[in-house]
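Q: Predict the assembly, please.
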Amino acid sequence: MSDDEFLRHYDPQAFDRPSITVDLVLLAIRGGRPSALLLRRDAPPQAERWALPGGFVGIDEDLEAAAVRVARDKAGIEGAQLEQLYTFGAVNRDPRMRIVTVAYLGLMAESAFEAALGAALQLLPAALEIDPGGEGFAARSPEGEALPLAFDHAEILGTALMRLRGKLDWSNVGFSLLPERFTLRQLQEVHEAILGTPLNKPAFRRRMLDKGWIAPTGTREAGASFRPAELYRFQPNT
Amino acid sequence: MSDDEFLRHYDPQAFDRPSITVDLVLLAIRGGRPSALLLRRDAPPQAERWALPGGFVGIDEDLEAAAVRVARDKAGIEGAQLEQLYTFGAVNRDPRMRIVTVAYLGLMAESAFEAALGAALQLLPAALEIDPGGEGFAARSPEGEALPLAFDHAEILGTALMRLRGKLDWSNVGFSLLPERFTLRQLQEVHEAILGTPLNKPAFRRRMLDKGWIAPTGTREAGASFRPAELYRFQPNT
DNA sequence: CTAGATATATCCATATTGATTATAAGAGGC
DNA sequence: GCCTCTTATAATCAATATGGATATATCTAG
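A: Predicted assembly structure:
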């Protein structure tokens, strides 16, 4: 069934007010690149395109509660830390009917990302390649194919990447993408993946330590064939 | 009619999906303080409390179009420059029914603010006194009385002030609050009003000029009984 | 022409940043 | 046990940005 055929059987005037959904941008740094969890649509409209996990907001459900529920039901993620991103409400963003969606951004460590992939087999990890020039990006499958995105989800993902870059050096978003204990090099790699540019190592160390956000744990990374680095943990500012 | 009495005649289950509204935070710097345009509610619920201008989003209306329409119809502001602020959707934020509201932020020069006050007589200019400590604020009438705010509109206004502070030194929000041509001292006063702290004058001048955002016009301010200052205009970065 | 007020420019001490170089600490080969 | 390799961590220096103070310029009012 094509999009056109589907729409012929759909009554867009069935309701007189917009529906409200939440859509989730669930991100981790995977192999040095920001990556999002996407679902392949198997029914029209936009069949075979890739979409963000989402769902309708219940009449007695807070927006954030709906987002947490979608994270659990569609991505197998329990107790996700979600932040409201932006609300998308263009009239024709969904061909079926008027839907306003509140996008949420969830950040997780690579291990949680892999766990979600294992728990919900329909999920695909899409690497988001940031254009060197600046604004745009491309979503690619693990095999390197460009992924066509459904509806306005490319715009939502782009907004998420911009938000991430903007908050990087004054908020704790960097730590949300790392395990509880991490080395300074891992932290720097996360920053570099988000910014898309290499950073100066000593200056980065100094800035991070001076901010007072991280505390050494006294333990060191294991399994390296060279000098192991100190493990730090995130410590909200006093 | 009290709120309780009103609610007894209201059926909160009349509809099965949330309604969507836009609420507008219309700000200017007035007499050295951030000030917002508010409307006094004359009917329950929350009668006699002060509310942000707002309205329902039409089924065939983009979110931003609805915000522009509300700015025109309820505040007499034509062609407002509005930026989406945040979406508030707590289940009980409105006692009548489930309403999700998308808040928009509009900045204007003091002259446009005064013009709006003259055009829509129901509007009240509320000065927003930022608590010295940090987060909170108080809304005061021109006579200095504390204004009780309706629904969650205090939270919305607080979010607007935080957004304004956050964007101040890397975006053009400062210029949106000034007339087309302005002196460096006016620009500094706007920044000080938003931050709530005095700023170093030579350092402020240097930073603003170095950013390349402003260009001298060659004309000078008039009517001063002392040396007139150069008038600058905003020039988006090349 | 002078006084008063404010704009604008200059100067210096200090903090921050980019970049390079030096030292420390572990693993593994011999 | 010692050497080498690799990376972590520290130290150093120059360049830049910032806070604060002072000096100079330019207007109005009288």
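Chain A touches chain B through 22 residues (CB under 8 Å). Chain A has two domains: 3-167, 173-234.
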